[in-house]
Amino acid sequence: MRKIFCAIVLVIGISSGTxxxxxxxxxxxxxxxxxxxxxxxVIGDEAxxxxxxxxxxxxxxxxxxYKATNQWYNAPDFLGFPRSAAVSFVLGTNAxxxxxxxxxxxxxxxxxxxxxxxxxxxxxxxxxxxxxxxIAFAVNNHGYVGLGYSSLGYKKDIWQYTDxxxxxxxxxxxxxxGLKLASVFVIGDKAFVVNGDKGVLTNGCRQYDxxxxxxxxxxxxxxxxxSSCVAxxxxxxxxxxxxxxxxxxxxxxxxxxxxxxxxWSPFDSLPAAARSGAIAFAFPxxxxxxxxxxxxxxxxxxxxxxxxxxxxxIVANEKAISIYPNPAVTDFTVRYSLxxxxxxxxxxxxxxxxxWMNMKLDATQNALRCNTSSLPSGIYFYQITAENKxxxxxxxxxxx
Length: 400
Hints:
By secondary structure, the chain is mainly beta. About 0% of the residues lie in helices and about 45% in strands. It has one helix at about 310-315; strands at about 5-10, 25, 40-45, 45-50, 60-65, 70-75, 85-90, 95-100, 110-115, 120-125, 135-140, 140-145, 150, 155, 160, 165-170, 185, 190-195, 200-210, 215-220, 225, 230-235, 235-240, 245, 255-260, 265, 280-285, 285-290, 300-305, 320-325, 330-335, 345-350, 355-360, 365-370, 380-385, 390-400. The longest helix is centred in the last third of the chain and has 6 residues, at about 310-315. Residues about 1-20 and about 310-320 have low confidence and may be disordered.
Protein backbone atom coordinates (compact mmCIF):
# COMPACT_ATOMS: atom_id res chain seq x y z
CA MET A 1 0.00 0.00 0.00
CA ARG A 2 1.23 3.49 -0.82
CA LYS A 3 2.21 5.93 1.89
CA ILE A 4 -0.76 7.52 3.55
CA PHE A 5 -1.39 9.68 6.55
CA CYS A 6 -1.78 8.39 10.11
CA ALA A 7 -3.78 5.21 10.54
CA ILE A 8 -6.91 5.18 12.66
CA VAL A 9 -7.37 1.78 14.25
CA LEU A 10 -11.03 0.92 14.81
CA VAL A 11 -13.00 -2.00 16.10
CA ILE A 12 -13.96 -4.37 13.32
CA GLY A 13 -17.71 -4.29 12.74
CA ILE A 14 -20.19 -6.73 14.12
CA SER A 15 -23.43 -8.28 12.90
CA SER A 16 -25.34 -11.32 13.99
CA GLY A 17 -25.47 -14.63 12.21
CA THR A 18 -23.08 -16.92 10.38
CA UNK A 19 -25.02 -17.54 7.18
CA UNK A 20 -23.05 -18.28 4.05
CA UNK A 21 -25.53 -16.26 2.02
CA UNK A 22 -24.75 -12.63 1.18
CA UNK A 23 -25.83 -10.25 3.91
CA UNK A 24 -25.15 -6.82 5.32
CA UNK A 25 -22.41 -6.78 7.96
CA UNK A 26 -21.37 -3.90 10.18
CA UNK A 27 -17.99 -2.52 9.07
CA UNK A 28 -15.65 -0.14 10.96
CA UNK A 29 -17.38 3.08 11.89
CA UNK A 30 -16.29 6.32 10.29
CA UNK A 31 -13.59 7.89 12.53
CA UNK A 32 -15.04 11.40 12.63
CA UNK A 33 -18.37 13.07 13.27
CA UNK A 34 -21.41 11.61 11.59
CA UNK A 35 -22.36 13.42 8.41
CA UNK A 36 -24.66 13.40 5.42
CA UNK A 37 -24.40 14.39 1.76
CA UNK A 38 -20.76 13.33 1.45
CA UNK A 39 -19.11 12.20 -1.76
CA UNK A 40 -17.21 8.97 -2.32
CA UNK A 41 -15.14 7.26 -5.00
CA VAL A 42 -13.04 4.11 -5.41
CA ILE A 43 -9.58 3.79 -6.94
CA GLY A 44 -8.14 0.28 -6.85
CA ASP A 45 -8.71 -1.26 -3.43
CA GLU A 46 -9.13 2.09 -1.68
CA ALA A 47 -12.31 4.07 -1.17
CA UNK A 48 -12.20 7.81 -0.50
CA UNK A 49 -14.99 9.53 1.43
CA UNK A 50 -15.20 13.21 2.31
CA UNK A 51 -16.98 16.55 2.48
CA UNK A 52 -20.57 16.59 3.78
CA UNK A 53 -22.40 18.29 6.64
CA UNK A 54 -22.44 17.17 10.29
CA UNK A 55 -25.25 19.36 11.58
CA UNK A 56 -22.87 22.15 12.58
CA UNK A 57 -20.22 22.53 9.90
CA UNK A 58 -19.72 21.92 6.22
CA UNK A 59 -16.68 19.68 5.85
CA UNK A 60 -13.57 19.57 3.68
CA UNK A 61 -11.89 16.54 5.27
CA UNK A 62 -11.38 13.27 3.41
CA UNK A 63 -10.67 9.74 4.63
CA UNK A 64 -9.47 6.55 2.95
CA UNK A 65 -11.03 3.17 3.62
CA TYR A 66 -8.51 0.47 2.73
CA LYS A 67 -10.32 -2.80 2.01
CA ALA A 68 -7.32 -5.05 2.69
CA THR A 69 -6.88 -3.84 6.29
CA ASN A 70 -10.55 -3.05 6.96
CA GLN A 71 -9.53 0.33 8.40
CA TRP A 72 -9.99 4.05 7.87
CA TYR A 73 -7.04 6.41 7.38
CA ASN A 74 -6.66 10.17 7.18
CA ALA A 75 -6.37 11.61 3.68
CA PRO A 76 -5.42 15.14 2.58
CA ASP A 77 -8.14 17.74 3.01
CA PHE A 78 -10.03 18.96 -0.03
CA LEU A 79 -8.65 22.32 -1.23
CA GLY A 80 -11.93 23.93 -2.26
CA PHE A 81 -14.39 25.51 0.16
CA PRO A 82 -16.13 23.24 2.73
CA ARG A 83 -19.32 21.82 1.24
CA SER A 84 -21.94 19.11 1.02
CA ALA A 85 -23.90 17.57 -1.85
CA ALA A 86 -20.85 17.57 -4.15
CA VAL A 87 -20.15 14.98 -6.88
CA SER A 88 -17.17 12.89 -7.94
CA PHE A 89 -16.00 10.62 -10.75
CA VAL A 90 -12.83 8.64 -11.48
CA LEU A 91 -10.67 8.59 -14.60
CA GLY A 92 -7.69 6.26 -14.33
CA THR A 93 -5.82 6.89 -11.07
CA ASN A 94 -7.30 10.37 -10.69
CA ALA A 95 -10.58 11.39 -9.12
CA UNK A 96 -12.46 14.62 -9.79
CA UNK A 97 -14.60 16.31 -7.14
CA UNK A 98 -16.75 19.39 -7.61
CA UNK A 99 -19.99 21.34 -7.35
CA UNK A 100 -21.90 21.26 -4.05
CA UNK A 101 -23.00 23.95 -1.63
CA UNK A 102 -21.38 25.69 1.34
CA UNK A 103 -22.54 28.42 3.69
CA UNK A 104 -23.69 30.71 0.89
CA UNK A 105 -22.09 29.36 -2.28
CA UNK A 106 -23.11 26.96 -5.03
CA UNK A 107 -19.96 25.48 -6.51
CA UNK A 108 -19.06 25.15 -10.16
CA UNK A 109 -15.42 24.33 -9.40
CA UNK A 110 -13.72 21.01 -10.12
CA UNK A 111 -10.73 19.58 -8.26
CA UNK A 112 -8.43 16.74 -9.31
CA UNK A 113 -7.15 14.23 -6.74
CA UNK A 114 -4.02 12.30 -7.75
CA UNK A 115 -4.23 8.99 -5.87
CA UNK A 116 -0.55 8.20 -6.52
CA UNK A 117 0.85 11.38 -4.96
CA UNK A 118 -2.19 12.03 -2.71
CA UNK A 119 -2.39 15.64 -3.86
CA UNK A 120 -5.18 17.98 -4.97
CA UNK A 121 -5.02 20.47 -7.85
CA UNK A 122 -7.68 22.61 -9.47
CA UNK A 123 -9.15 21.61 -12.83
CA UNK A 124 -11.39 23.54 -15.22
CA UNK A 125 -14.62 24.83 -13.70
CA UNK A 126 -17.94 23.52 -14.93
CA UNK A 127 -18.74 26.17 -17.62
CA UNK A 128 -22.18 27.02 -16.27
CA UNK A 129 -23.79 28.07 -13.00
CA UNK A 130 -22.84 26.37 -9.76
CA UNK A 131 -25.14 23.77 -8.22
CA UNK A 132 -25.59 21.18 -5.54
CA UNK A 133 -27.25 17.74 -5.42
CA UNK A 134 -26.10 16.97 -8.98
CA ILE A 135 -25.03 13.60 -10.43
CA ALA A 136 -21.67 12.45 -11.81
CA PHE A 137 -20.37 9.28 -13.44
CA ALA A 138 -17.57 8.09 -15.73
CA VAL A 139 -18.14 6.21 -19.00
CA ASN A 140 -15.74 5.51 -21.88
CA ASN A 141 -12.88 7.47 -20.32
CA HIS A 142 -14.91 10.64 -19.87
CA GLY A 143 -16.51 12.17 -16.81
CA TYR A 144 -20.08 13.46 -16.79
CA VAL A 145 -21.69 16.01 -14.46
CA GLY A 146 -25.21 17.37 -14.58
CA LEU A 147 -28.66 17.91 -13.11
CA GLY A 148 -28.88 19.29 -9.57
CA TYR A 149 -30.16 22.58 -8.21
CA SER A 150 -28.76 26.06 -8.82
CA SER A 151 -29.81 29.60 -7.95
CA LEU A 152 -31.96 29.39 -11.09
CA GLY A 153 -33.76 26.23 -9.96
CA TYR A 154 -33.77 22.60 -11.07
CA LYS A 155 -31.17 21.71 -13.69
CA LYS A 156 -31.44 19.24 -16.61
CA ASP A 157 -28.12 19.87 -18.43
CA ILE A 158 -25.34 17.28 -18.80
CA TRP A 159 -21.66 18.10 -19.34
CA GLN A 160 -18.83 15.83 -20.49
CA TYR A 161 -15.33 16.32 -19.07
CA THR A 162 -12.18 15.23 -20.96
CA ASP A 163 -9.14 14.97 -18.71
CA UNK A 164 -6.53 15.00 -21.48
CA UNK A 165 -7.62 18.48 -22.54
CA UNK A 166 -9.06 19.61 -19.18
CA UNK A 167 -12.17 20.75 -21.03
CA UNK A 168 -15.96 20.45 -20.96
CA UNK A 169 -18.55 19.82 -23.68
CA UNK A 170 -22.31 20.09 -23.25
CA UNK A 171 -24.32 16.98 -24.12
CA UNK A 172 -28.04 16.35 -24.63
CA UNK A 173 -30.26 17.40 -21.76
CA UNK A 174 -31.59 14.79 -19.37
CA UNK A 175 -35.32 15.45 -19.72
CA UNK A 176 -37.91 18.14 -20.18
CA UNK A 177 -37.70 18.95 -16.48
CA GLY A 178 -34.74 19.27 -14.17
CA LEU A 179 -33.91 16.90 -11.33
CA LYS A 180 -31.95 17.06 -8.08
CA LEU A 181 -30.99 14.49 -5.45
CA ALA A 182 -31.06 11.65 -7.99
CA SER A 183 -28.85 8.56 -7.80
CA VAL A 184 -26.76 7.04 -10.58
CA PHE A 185 -25.02 3.74 -11.29
CA VAL A 186 -23.02 2.51 -14.31
CA ILE A 187 -23.17 -0.91 -15.97
CA GLY A 188 -20.87 -1.40 -18.93
CA ASP A 189 -20.93 1.76 -21.02
CA LYS A 190 -24.38 2.87 -19.86
CA ALA A 191 -25.36 5.09 -16.93
CA PHE A 192 -28.70 4.82 -15.16
CA VAL A 193 -30.24 7.79 -13.33
CA VAL A 194 -32.88 6.82 -10.80
CA ASN A 195 -35.34 8.61 -8.50
CA GLY A 196 -34.85 12.20 -7.37
CA ASP A 197 -36.74 15.43 -6.81
CA LYS A 198 -38.16 17.43 -9.73
CA GLY A 199 -40.56 19.49 -7.64
CA VAL A 200 -42.20 16.21 -6.67
CA LEU A 201 -40.39 13.00 -5.80
CA THR A 202 -40.07 10.48 -8.62
CA ASN A 203 -39.26 6.79 -9.08
CA GLY A 204 -38.28 7.19 -12.73
CA CYS A 205 -35.27 5.50 -14.31
CA ARG A 206 -33.42 6.77 -17.39
CA GLN A 207 -30.52 5.15 -19.25
CA TYR A 208 -27.83 7.35 -20.77
CA ASP A 209 -25.94 5.99 -23.80
CA UNK A 210 -22.77 8.06 -23.96
CA UNK A 211 -21.84 6.97 -27.49
CA UNK A 212 -25.23 7.86 -28.92
CA UNK A 213 -25.66 10.78 -26.48
CA UNK A 214 -29.27 9.92 -25.84
CA UNK A 215 -31.60 9.11 -22.97
CA UNK A 216 -33.93 6.09 -22.89
CA UNK A 217 -36.73 5.59 -20.41
CA UNK A 218 -36.47 2.33 -18.46
CA UNK A 219 -38.70 0.52 -15.98
CA UNK A 220 -39.52 2.65 -12.97
CA UNK A 221 -37.78 1.93 -9.69
CA UNK A 222 -40.00 -0.62 -7.90
CA UNK A 223 -39.88 1.05 -4.52
CA UNK A 224 -41.65 4.22 -3.42
CA UNK A 225 -40.74 7.48 -5.20
CA UNK A 226 -37.90 9.09 -3.26
CA SER A 227 -34.80 11.28 -3.27
CA SER A 228 -31.33 11.23 -1.65
CA CYS A 229 -30.79 7.51 -2.29
CA VAL A 230 -27.55 5.62 -2.76
CA ALA A 231 -26.68 3.57 -5.83
CA UNK A 232 -23.92 1.12 -6.66
CA UNK A 233 -23.14 -1.78 -9.00
CA UNK A 234 -22.47 -5.29 -7.72
CA UNK A 235 -22.13 -8.46 -9.82
CA UNK A 236 -23.42 -6.72 -12.92
CA UNK A 237 -26.62 -5.44 -11.30
CA UNK A 238 -27.56 -1.94 -10.21
CA UNK A 239 -28.57 -1.55 -6.56
CA UNK A 240 -30.56 1.51 -5.42
CA UNK A 241 -32.05 2.23 -2.03
CA UNK A 242 -32.41 4.18 1.22
CA UNK A 243 -33.52 7.82 0.80
CA UNK A 244 -36.58 9.86 1.76
CA UNK A 245 -39.92 9.06 0.15
CA UNK A 246 -43.33 10.55 -0.63
CA UNK A 247 -44.75 9.26 2.67
CA UNK A 248 -42.26 11.57 4.42
CA UNK A 249 -40.34 8.58 5.69
CA UNK A 250 -36.69 7.61 5.71
CA UNK A 251 -36.12 4.28 3.99
CA UNK A 252 -33.76 1.34 4.55
CA UNK A 253 -34.89 -0.87 1.63
CA UNK A 254 -33.05 -1.62 -1.62
CA UNK A 255 -34.06 -2.69 -5.11
CA UNK A 256 -31.88 -4.48 -7.69
CA UNK A 257 -32.03 -3.68 -11.41
CA UNK A 258 -31.40 -6.24 -14.16
CA UNK A 259 -30.49 -4.60 -17.47
CA UNK A 260 -31.23 -7.77 -19.51
CA UNK A 261 -34.88 -7.96 -18.42
CA UNK A 262 -35.36 -4.26 -17.54
CA UNK A 263 -36.84 -5.29 -14.20
CA TRP A 264 -36.44 -4.41 -10.53
CA SER A 265 -36.55 -6.91 -7.67
CA PRO A 266 -36.15 -6.58 -3.88
CA PHE A 267 -32.64 -6.64 -2.44
CA ASP A 268 -31.67 -7.16 1.22
CA SER A 269 -32.66 -4.17 3.36
CA LEU A 270 -30.04 -2.41 5.47
CA PRO A 271 -30.25 -3.84 9.03
CA ALA A 272 -29.89 -0.40 10.57
CA ALA A 273 -31.56 2.98 10.77
CA ALA A 274 -33.43 4.14 7.70
CA ARG A 275 -31.79 7.27 6.30
CA SER A 276 -31.24 9.69 3.46
CA GLY A 277 -28.08 11.42 2.27
CA ALA A 278 -25.95 8.30 2.76
CA ILE A 279 -22.91 7.23 0.69
CA ALA A 280 -22.10 4.03 -1.16
CA PHE A 281 -18.93 2.66 -2.70
CA ALA A 282 -18.22 -0.74 -4.19
CA PHE A 283 -15.30 -3.04 -4.92
CA PRO A 284 -15.69 -5.96 -7.35
CA UNK A 285 -17.17 -8.36 -4.75
CA UNK A 286 -18.17 -6.09 -1.88
CA UNK A 287 -20.27 -2.93 -1.52
CA UNK A 288 -20.30 -0.50 1.41
CA UNK A 289 -23.09 1.83 2.54
CA UNK A 290 -23.12 4.24 5.45
CA UNK A 291 -23.43 7.70 6.99
CA UNK A 292 -26.53 9.81 6.24
CA UNK A 293 -29.27 11.43 8.29
CA UNK A 294 -32.31 10.08 10.17
CA UNK A 295 -32.81 12.95 12.70
CA UNK A 296 -29.19 12.34 13.71
CA UNK A 297 -26.04 12.53 11.59
CA UNK A 298 -24.82 8.95 11.26
CA UNK A 299 -21.37 7.40 10.84
CA UNK A 300 -22.06 3.66 10.83
CA UNK A 301 -20.98 1.70 7.75
CA UNK A 302 -22.11 -1.69 6.46
CA UNK A 303 -20.83 -3.97 3.73
CA UNK A 304 -22.58 -6.49 1.51
CA UNK A 305 -20.43 -9.40 0.36
CA UNK A 306 -21.14 -11.08 -2.97
CA UNK A 307 -21.24 -14.87 -3.14
CA UNK A 308 -17.70 -15.04 -4.52
CA UNK A 309 -16.31 -12.73 -1.84
CA UNK A 310 -13.31 -14.43 -0.19
CA UNK A 311 -14.65 -13.98 3.35
CA UNK A 312 -17.86 -15.73 2.38
CA UNK A 313 -15.92 -18.55 0.77
CA ILE A 314 -14.44 -19.23 4.20
CA VAL A 315 -17.68 -18.89 6.18
CA ALA A 316 -19.60 -21.01 3.64
CA ASN A 317 -17.61 -24.02 4.83
CA GLU A 318 -18.20 -23.44 8.54
CA LYS A 319 -20.83 -25.01 10.74
CA ALA A 320 -22.85 -23.05 13.29
CA ILE A 321 -20.93 -21.12 15.93
CA SER A 322 -22.62 -20.32 19.23
CA ILE A 323 -21.99 -18.84 22.68
CA TYR A 324 -23.72 -20.05 25.84
CA PRO A 325 -24.91 -19.10 28.34
CA ASN A 326 -25.80 -15.69 26.97
CA PRO A 327 -26.25 -13.60 29.12
CA ALA A 328 -23.18 -14.92 30.94
CA VAL A 329 -22.51 -14.56 34.67
CA THR A 330 -19.26 -16.27 35.68
CA ASP A 331 -18.17 -17.84 32.38
CA PHE A 332 -19.29 -18.69 28.86
CA THR A 333 -18.37 -21.25 26.23
CA VAL A 334 -17.79 -20.70 22.52
CA ARG A 335 -18.90 -23.75 20.54
CA TYR A 336 -17.54 -24.16 17.01
CA SER A 337 -16.67 -26.62 14.28
CA LEU A 338 -13.95 -25.28 12.02
CA UNK A 339 -11.88 -26.49 9.11
CA UNK A 340 -8.20 -26.90 9.92
CA UNK A 341 -6.73 -24.98 6.99
CA UNK A 342 -7.15 -21.50 8.50
CA UNK A 343 -5.95 -19.67 11.61
CA UNK A 344 -8.94 -18.64 13.71
CA UNK A 345 -9.16 -16.11 16.54
CA UNK A 346 -11.91 -15.20 19.02
CA UNK A 347 -12.10 -11.44 19.65
CA UNK A 348 -14.27 -9.63 22.18
CA UNK A 349 -14.94 -5.86 22.27
CA UNK A 350 -17.03 -3.55 24.41
CA UNK A 351 -19.32 -0.82 23.08
CA UNK A 352 -16.46 1.70 23.12
CA UNK A 353 -14.29 -0.49 20.92
CA UNK A 354 -11.94 -1.67 23.67
CA UNK A 355 -10.65 -5.17 23.05
CA TRP A 356 -11.03 -7.49 26.06
CA MET A 357 -10.12 -10.84 24.51
CA ASN A 358 -8.00 -12.04 21.60
CA MET A 359 -7.62 -15.82 21.73
CA LYS A 360 -6.54 -18.31 19.09
CA LEU A 361 -9.00 -21.13 18.48
CA ASP A 362 -7.81 -24.71 18.15
CA ALA A 363 -9.58 -26.07 15.07
CA THR A 364 -9.04 -29.63 16.35
CA GLN A 365 -11.29 -28.84 19.32
CA ASN A 366 -14.90 -27.65 19.31
CA ALA A 367 -15.16 -25.44 22.39
CA LEU A 368 -13.44 -22.55 24.14
CA ARG A 369 -14.38 -21.77 27.75
CA CYS A 370 -13.89 -18.19 28.91
CA ASN A 371 -14.05 -16.71 32.41
CA THR A 372 -15.82 -13.37 32.90
CA SER A 373 -13.93 -12.32 36.06
CA SER A 374 -12.10 -9.55 34.21
CA LEU A 375 -15.19 -8.35 32.33
CA PRO A 376 -17.43 -5.62 33.76
CA SER A 377 -21.16 -6.10 33.34
CA GLY A 378 -22.37 -4.87 29.99
CA ILE A 379 -22.83 -5.59 26.29
CA TYR A 380 -19.95 -6.97 24.23
CA PHE A 381 -19.48 -7.86 20.60
CA TYR A 382 -17.61 -11.00 19.61
CA GLN A 383 -15.99 -11.89 16.34
CA ILE A 384 -14.29 -14.99 14.97
CA THR A 385 -11.78 -14.19 12.27
CA ALA A 386 -9.95 -16.27 9.68
CA GLU A 387 -7.06 -14.79 7.71
CA ASN A 388 -7.94 -11.33 9.10
CA LYS A 389 -11.54 -11.59 7.85
CA UNK A 390 -14.65 -11.89 10.00
CA UNK A 391 -16.44 -15.22 9.55
CA UNK A 392 -18.80 -15.09 12.54
CA UNK A 393 -20.05 -12.23 14.66
CA UNK A 394 -22.56 -11.57 17.39
CA UNK A 395 -23.43 -10.05 20.77
CA UNK A 396 -22.60 -11.24 24.28
CA UNK A 397 -24.18 -9.84 27.45
CA UNK A 398 -22.34 -10.15 30.78
CA UNK A 399 -24.44 -9.81 33.95
CA UNK A 400 -22.94 -9.89 37.47
